Amino acid sequence: MDTVARHVLWFLPMLWLGMVLAISFLEAPLKFRAPGITVALGLGIGRLVFWALNIAETVLAVGLVLAAVVVAPALGTWGWLVVAVILLAAQILVVRPPLSRRTDRVLAGEELPRSHAHFWYIGLEVAKVVALIGLAIAAAP
Fold this sequence. Notes:
Blueprint: H1 2-31, H2 39-71, H3 75-107, H4 117-139
Helix pairs in contact: 1-2, 1-4, 2-3, 3-4
């Protein structure tokens, strides 16, 4: 069991990292460049995609915590894991609610200026990428 948990502790951060890079830094900006995609349609798609991503990230975070409990890794591994989980929690609990309210308003037809909350979300994504790389390196077998 310990051997499987060690591999999980290295593999899951890389899987999580790939999902974040593909969705946040590739899909999200590109969808607004696709022909025929309006801001409202892009926001509606983005809401669904990021909702699904956040659920997957939460499942991965729980799996990582469970694997870390089994393995009892060095403090550095725990540190990177805690940082990644805190960053995810901040995105879901602090930044997403105002973004969701703004999306609701835009989808209802309001014309709103560009949101600064997106910059907070992106900043947290960049920090999470660093934390996941650090976690994968620290947990490498």
